[in-house]
Amino acid sequence: MDPSLLSTLAGEAGTAVVTLLVTESWQQARDGIVAVWRRHRPQAADEVGRELETSRRALLAAADSGNPEVTGQHVASDWQQRVAGLLGEHPDAGEELRTLLARLRSEPARQQIHGNVRLQAKASGSSRIYQSMGDQHITER
């Protein structure tokens, strides 16, 4: 893959990480990015997973404090550098990363999460509880 395309892809990935980590689909984004690392740099995959979770916490905290732009730019730059390093060593990971980002972006728009969410319920007897942060379809017979 052309080095300028790899650089562009790294920039897109850094921005996408910031966007995806504060949506409901953050876990799919995390799992997909870790899977790319696991195939090309397996010794760093677990650390990348932890760093994605740390980045997510920082972004959510910044949203709560009212200053998400600065933190978002910092996190995007950090992930751009990480992806550029991976692509520099493993250019063949570029197509896999491009496919992952396209798939994640094509999913329906998700609600952004700002802060912590806590669902709590208590059931007794033969009652049922259904909780959801999105669409929920229940069919009982």
Give an overview in words:
With 141 residues, the chain is mainly α. It has one domain. It is 65% helix and 0% strand. The chain has five helices and no strands. Helix 1 (3-21) crosses helix 4 (68-89) and helix 1 runs parallel beside helix 5. It is elongated and about 60 Å long.
Helix percentage: 55-70%
Question: How large is the radius of gyration?
Answer: 18 Å
Q: Which outline best applies?
A: elongated
Structural class: mainly alpha
Tally of DSSP β-strands: 0
Q: Into which percentage range does the β-strand content fall?
A: under 5%
Instruction: Please write the string of helix (H) and strand (E) elements.
Output: HHHHH
Rounded to the nearest angstrom, the distance between the terminal CA atoms is 54 Å
Number of helices: 5
- Largest sheet, strands/sense/barrel: none
Poorly predicted regions: none
Number of domains: 1
Mean pLDDT level: 82
